[in-house]
Amino acid sequence: MSTIKACIFDLDGVIVDTAVYHYKAWKRLADQIGLNFTEHDNELLKGVSRVRSLEIILELNHVTKTAEEQTELATQKNNWYVDMINQMTPAEILPGAKEFLEACRAAGIKTALGSASKNSSTILAKINMAHLFDAIVDGNHVSKAKPDPEVFLKGAEALGVSSAECVVFEDAIAGVEAAINGGMKVVGIGEPAVLNKANIVLSGLDKMSLELLHRL
Ligand code: G6P
Ligand code: MG
Fold this sequence. Notes:
- Helix 3 (50-60) crosses helix 4 (67-85).
- By secondary structure, the protein is α/β, with parallel strands linked by helices.
- 42% of the residues lie in helices and 12% in strands.
- The chain has nine helices and six strands; from the N terminus they run βαααααβαβαβαββα.
- The longest helix has 19 residues, at 67-85.
- Strands 3-2-1-4-5-6 form a six-stranded parallel β-sheet.
- The termini are close together.
- The structure holds 6-O-phosphono-alpha-D-glucopyranose and magnesium ion.
- Magnesium ion is lined by residues 10, 12-14, 46-47, 171-172, 175.
């Protein structure tokens, strides 16, 4: 008999692919202030908070900005990003995501969101999936970024389950590490070579099933 009682899902890269919007907004900012920023650099920002993302871009360019300037730049990037996510529709849900959440709920498995994003409520409303989560924990509720397990531990707490009863779904290395640090099982969504610390790695939630969940 499986002990799994809950699934906790990262948002960006697991439920929807917002990395392209993050990239466009950071790229516009970088161009505006004369910094280099490539799609390859964008990989380093996956699962990383907004503030830390800007720090990484500045570090890559060996540029420093005051705290005040950084706040202004991050706000500008976020305004452009929000303009883009406000145009999102349910057509952008990644294959299998909605179906797997519905299957979990039908089987009595609890569901939570565990995301670093402070924009998760906007995205979930646009893709019409908010009602599929029993608990939502995002960047507005945590003070420690992944790989710290805070976001997932708060998710488990909100669902009333222990870490050992949870499976996390993550596309970022920092997120896989956060789940492990929290004592949870983790399904990597992406490349096995990159997410090699996960219990299993799948190309997407369309490859996931309740049977696989109970075999973890
Ligand atoms: C997710 C994304 C990151 C992003 C972070 C913060 O973890 O993978 O790329 O930087 O959320 O997002 P936000 O919407 O708060 O700027
Ligand atoms: Mg992610």
